[in-house]
Amino acid sequence: MEVYNVTVATGTSEYSGTNNYIFVTLVGEKGESERTILDNPGLDFCRGAVDQYKVTSPSPLGSLLLVRLEKQRYWVEDNWFCRYVTVELPGEDTVLTFPCYRWLIGDTKVEIREGTAKTLASDDSSPQLQAHRKTELQERQKTYRWVTWAPGIPKCIDAKTEADLPQDVRFDNEKRSDFEHSLHYALLELSLKKLAIRFGKSWNDLDDFKRIFWKLRSPIAEYCMEHWKEDWFFGYQCMNGSNPRMIKRCKKLPENFPVTPNMVQSSMAPRTDLDKELKAGNIYLLDYVIMDGVPANTIKGKLQHIAAPLCLLYQHPDEGLIPIAIQLGQIPSLDTPIFLPKDPPLAWLLAKMWVRHSEFQVFQVLSHLLRTHLVVEVFCVATLRQLPAVHPIYKLLAPHLRYTLEINCRGRTQLISANGIFKRVVSTGGDGLLILAQREYKVLTYRSLQPHNDFTDRGVSQLPKYFYREHSLMLWEAIHGFVSGMVNLYYPSDRDMQEDLEIQAWFRDISEEGFTELPNFGLPSKLNTREELSTLLSVAIFSSTSQHAATNNGQFDWCAWVPNTPCTMRRPPPTDKDAVTMEMIMATLPDISQSCIQMAITWHLGRAQPDAIPLGTYTEEHFTEGKAQEQIDKFRRELKKIEDHILKQNEGLELQYLFLLPSRIENSITI
């Protein structure tokens, strides 16, 4: 009689444990063990428990292939989350780990494999394991299906709401409770603020916004409230705010932006002019042409307003990056004047507000929603459909896809839906939001998702104090180095990767299904080299971690002081510089209700998540072999160097840039 010591680990989140019957069978190359009910004295399978059992077999099983877990109902249905199973072989010091990290729901049976990562080619020793791989993918492809949520944007998971998702990709109970509680908390504070203001003064001047600026606040938001009118701070946000990838070097002025050297001479440093600074590479441009003609939302029966500004900026040797000219439309005319810093102060201030209003739309819909959430969902669905759990690339990506499907489903139903929050308060809510996303998707390129190419193409590699650029490149190099190490570990040559039918099917799902109708996206027709695979995986991980943190985590900081980044504008852009008054500004900016909702939602979405797993932290150990663990440890050391560098760089700075501190970057898109 062979006796195997078996350890079973239950999940640590709320309701992970079960009081149902659990059975285990060990499957080896020479046969199966007895089907054994796991039942120790006292309670088994409590939350966080690691229970030990003995499983017998009448004869040696040979190499262990699978662990079969079965759950049967006892009185009432009680789901169970299994983290892993370990098996100590009889007469040996060998302990095998079988990662699970799955929910067992209903009367069900699952078979899990030993944790050593295996590509299809390296897994040809057992027909039974080959069949297990095939069956797993067939079941997953029935469960996870592509669907077109709207034309002209990436495909997504086929789920009308988060309730339609399998439990394995749902929020844990604590996450779900916190998400819903924090939203209710923010909306309750919103109601209290509106009530307090209703019994106070009317909404007359910019200082009135301070009356909703309590309880929910942050050091950067308070700094923003004090400095938002200053031109250098406007320029700083172009580089290090929530949309830091919009700014481009301007080599030649656009024909539809007729700025003359005389117009901006007063903004220039001594002994220089606009033409010289253009040649020197010190002139930059924000062009919101993508906003041109987007239909504006109607809120409570009142049409909102949208502009498509052009903004010229100058890297001043003493003052830093500053705006020097703004045109609030794409077609110059008498009714579309060019606003300048020397204009009446309120006119210049309102022009900057209009640029920041366009910034809100672009960063929320394009930089944040499309370029992180929707792009990463493509990788998520393809990975679940085409890679079995034993595949090294599945193991590599799984921690970076946690919760993404649920947060995206919630976004589609609660945020950007026909009756969602954007429709209630944002000027592009409704049809405009989708049109904006469709325009960006048409011109989306794979190259632009790689930060080193993005900075080069935008001509901003020499822009000083561009902390987002510096930190992004450091993180990209760390991520790409980690991914390359993993890829080379499991694919000794390019040919090995080319012949992996599963990875090629995964790639086709991404390129032909997920990113459909994108002839100019720029992906190759087939993965030919390990470097191509490493770059693609790095894009997925960078987008789900660093890029998402750069656009999401600071949104409350930059948007809490509503005049700095207004979510909507209630009056059209000014046509006469001399006619701008404070009354006009207040009538243009979001009203009390809209301002409160903007503060509440950006706090809810931008706050640090209580269950956040930082970049490089792997709470679920999908990789069990030593060489893979060495790559993970090396990655963590690189992240620690980046962490130390960023902290040292920010010492003593009144305005710190810490959004890309590795310890503050989540391992996946969870909010």
TrEMBL record:
<feature type="site" description="Essential for stabilizing binding to COTL1">
    <location>
        <position position="103"/>
    </location>
</feature>
<keyword id="KW-0106">Calcium</keyword>
<dbReference type="InterPro" id="IPR036226">
    <property type="entry name" value="LipOase_C_sf"/>
</dbReference>
<feature type="binding site">
    <location>
        <position position="39"/>
    </location>
    <ligand>
        <name>Ca(2+) 2</name>
    </ligand>
</feature>
<keyword id="KW-0963">Cytoplasm</keyword>
<feature type="binding site">
    <location>
        <position position="368"/>
    </location>
    <ligand>
        <name>Fe cation</name>
    </ligand>
</feature>
<dbReference type="Pfam" id="PF01477">
    <property type="entry name" value="PLAT"/>
</dbReference>
<comment type="pathway">
    <text>Lipid metabolism.</text>
</comment>
<dbReference type="GO" id="GO:0016702">
    <property type="term" value="F:oxidoreductase activity, acting on single donors with incorporation of molecular oxygen, incorporation of two atoms of oxygen"/>
</dbReference>
<keyword id="KW-0408">Iron</keyword>
<keyword id="KW-0560">Oxidoreductase</keyword>
<feature type="binding site">
    <location>
        <position position="373"/>
    </location>
    <ligand>
        <name>Fe cation</name>
    </ligand>
</feature>
<feature type="binding site">
    <location>
        <position position="78"/>
    </location>
    <ligand>
        <name>Ca(2+) 1</name>
    </ligand>
</feature>
<feature type="domain" description="Lipoxygenase">
    <location>
        <begin position="119"/>
        <end position="671"/>
    </location>
</feature>
<dbReference type="InterPro" id="IPR013819">
    <property type="entry name" value="LipOase_C"/>
</dbReference>
<feature type="domain" description="PLAT">
    <location>
        <begin position="2"/>
        <end position="118"/>
    </location>
</feature>
<dbReference type="Pfam" id="PF00305">
    <property type="entry name" value="Lipoxygenase"/>
</dbReference>
<protein>
    <submittedName>
        <fullName>Arachidonate 12-lipoxygenase</fullName>
    </submittedName>
</protein>
<keyword id="KW-0223">Dioxygenase</keyword>
<feature type="binding site">
    <location>
        <position position="548"/>
    </location>
    <ligand>
        <name>Fe cation</name>
    </ligand>
</feature>
<dbReference type="InterPro" id="IPR020834">
    <property type="entry name" value="LipOase_CS"/>
</dbReference>
<keyword id="KW-0479">Metal-binding</keyword>
<dbReference type="InterPro" id="IPR000907">
    <property type="entry name" value="LipOase"/>
</dbReference>
<dbReference type="GO" id="GO:0005737">
    <property type="term" value="C:cytoplasm"/>
</dbReference>
<dbReference type="InterPro" id="IPR036392">
    <property type="entry name" value="PLAT/LH2_dom_sf"/>
</dbReference>
<dbReference type="InterPro" id="IPR001885">
    <property type="entry name" value="LipOase_mml"/>
</dbReference>
<dbReference type="InterPro" id="IPR001024">
    <property type="entry name" value="PLAT/LH2_dom"/>
</dbReference>
<feature type="binding site">
    <location>
        <position position="40"/>
    </location>
    <ligand>
        <name>Ca(2+) 2</name>
    </ligand>
</feature>
<keyword id="KW-0443">Lipid metabolism</keyword>
<dbReference type="GO" id="GO:0005506">
    <property type="term" value="F:iron ion binding"/>
</dbReference>
<feature type="binding site">
    <location>
        <position position="17"/>
    </location>
    <ligand>
        <name>Ca(2+) 1</name>
    </ligand>
</feature>
<dbReference type="InterPro" id="IPR042062">
    <property type="entry name" value="PLAT_LOX_verte"/>
</dbReference>
<feature type="binding site">
    <location>
        <position position="671"/>
    </location>
    <ligand>
        <name>Fe cation</name>
    </ligand>
</feature>
<comment type="similarity">
    <text>Belongs to the lipoxygenase family.</text>
</comment>
<dbReference type="GO" id="GO:0034440">
    <property type="term" value="P:lipid oxidation"/>
</dbReference>
